């Protein structure tokens, strides 16, 4: 990180000095840490708000259990994806070497592995069943809760 330079402190005489001012540097660090603290507090408040909303919306507990089932089934697929490395053609075709790999690429990479027969087949059925149950539960609430009008 570069230390900010200031021309306000001149040495003796009329020459202008480009020496860094320690006070400006410390002030900039303090303002950054204040912004980081504000971001942390904001993130924490948003998380608390969403948690409160989720507990309010899922007072019966069934939606939360169904959502947990989707997460668990998805975690199993995620672990299966990272258990093996895909062949170069699949990696290049689906751009799996990028940092923004999403569900589309992971799903299609697992399907490509299933069709090649090189690894043990991955079963998508538990995920699809859990996802369908959660979707069926949430679909009527989209209008009821005001997400769409």
Task: Give your account of this protein's structure.
The chain is mostly helical. It has 2 domains: 1-57; 58-149, no CATH class. Helices cover 65% and strands 0% of the residues. It has helices at residues 22-57, 62-83, 88-94, 103-116, 125-138, 141-144. The model is unreliable at 4-19 and 33-43 (pLDDT under 50).
Radius of gyration from CA coordinates? 27 Å
Quaternary structure state of the chains depicted? single chain
Helix content: 55-70%
Report the order of strands and helices. HHHHHH
Low-confidence stretches: 4-19, 33-43
Write the layout of secondary structure elements.
Elements: H1 22-57, H2 62-83, H3 88-94, H4 103-116, H5 125-138, H6 141-144
Helix pairs in contact: 2-4, 2-5
Summed up, what is this model?
By secondary structure, the chain is mainly α.
Keywords:
2 domains, mainly alpha, 149 residues, 0% strand, 6 helices
